[in-house]
C-alpha cells in the first residue's frame, strides 16, 4: 500500500488551453486541502485486487498526512524533508528522504512547489463519466507509474487514476473535500512511537 501512495500525494500546474485553466484555477485557490478517499486497485486483467480507505490533509508546499483506516491502519506523513511511513500492525516506521520518496511520482500532483512541468507532460484528456480529465505522463522512465489521470467536476478534484508499469490501475475517489481548512502544523510532524522499529533513518 505504501507504494501505491508513494505513487501518490504534490503541485497540479501548467499547460496550455483548458487543462491549464482548470489546473491553474485549482492550484491558485488551494493552499490546503482535506478529504476522505476510497482506493481500489485492479490488475492488468481488470480484476479488483485491493480496496482501502481513509482520509488525508495537505498543506502546500510539500506537507501532507495520509491516513489509511481500512483494511488496516497505516500513516504516511511528509514534512518537506522526509516521508514517514508507520505500519501500526507491524510496529515499524520507514523513513525516506522527501525528494526520493516523492520526486517524480504522482505524489507530486497534490501538493508541491509549482514545478510540475519539470517532471510531467500534461495534456487535456477530454470529458468522460461526467468528469473533465487531465493526463500527466512522467518525463522520467525510472518511476513506477507510467500515467496519471486527474478528474475534475465543476473545478473540484474528484478522482485520480494511476497506471503503473506492471499494468495495475489504482483509482482514488475523493469525498467531503474541503479547500483551505485551518490545519495544525502538528499534523505534518511525526515522532516514532516508543518501541517501534525505525528503518532508513540514517
TrEMBL record:
Listed InterPro entries: LolA/LolB/LppX, OM_lipoprot_carrier_LolA-like, OM_lipoprot_carrier_LolA_Pbac
CC terms in the record's Gene Ontology section: periplasmic space
Name recorded for this polypeptide: Outer-membrane lipoprotein carrier protein
Entry's localization field: Periplasm
UniProt signal peptide: 1-19
Highest taxon of source: Bacteria
A matching Pfam family: LolA
Biological source species: Sulfuritortus calidifontis
Keyword Transmembrane helix: no
Recorded family membership: Belongs to the LolA family.
Gene encoding the protein: lolA
Amino acid at each position: 500500500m505504501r507504494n501505491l501512495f508513494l505513487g501518490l500525494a504534490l503541485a497540479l500546474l501548467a499547460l496550455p488551453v483548458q487543462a491549464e485553466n482548470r489546473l491553474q484555477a485549482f492550484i491558485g485557490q488551494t493552499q490546503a486541502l482535506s478529504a476522505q478517499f476510497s482506493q481500489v486497485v485492479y490488475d492488468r486483467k481488470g480484476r479488483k485486487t485491493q480496496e482501502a480507505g481513509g482520509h488525508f490533509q495537505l498543506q502546500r508546499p510539500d506537507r501532507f498526512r495520509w491516513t489509511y483506516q481500512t483494511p488496516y491502519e497505516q500513516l504516511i506523513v511528509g514534512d518537506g524533508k522526509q516521508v514517514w511511513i508507520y505500519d501500526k500492525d507491524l510496529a515499524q516506521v520507514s523513513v525516506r528522504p522527501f525528494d526520493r520518496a516523492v520526486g517524480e511520482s504522482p505524489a507530486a500532483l497534490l501538493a508541491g512547489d509549482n514545478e510540475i512541468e519539470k517532471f510531467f507532460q500534461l495534456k487535456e484528456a477530454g470529458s468522460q463519466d461526467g468528469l473533465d480529465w487531465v493526463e500527466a505522463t512522467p518525463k522520467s522512465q525510472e518511476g513506477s507509474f507510467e500515467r496519471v489521470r486527474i478528474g475534475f467536476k465543476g473545478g473540484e478534484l474528484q478522482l485520480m487514476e494511476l497506471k503503473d508499469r506492471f499494468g495495475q490501475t489504482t483509482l482514488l475517489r475523493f469525498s467531503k473535500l474541503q479547500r483551505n481548512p485551518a490545519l495544525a502544523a502538528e499534523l505534518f510532524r511525526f515522532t516514532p512511537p516508543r518501541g517501534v522499529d525505525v528503518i532508513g533513518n540514517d
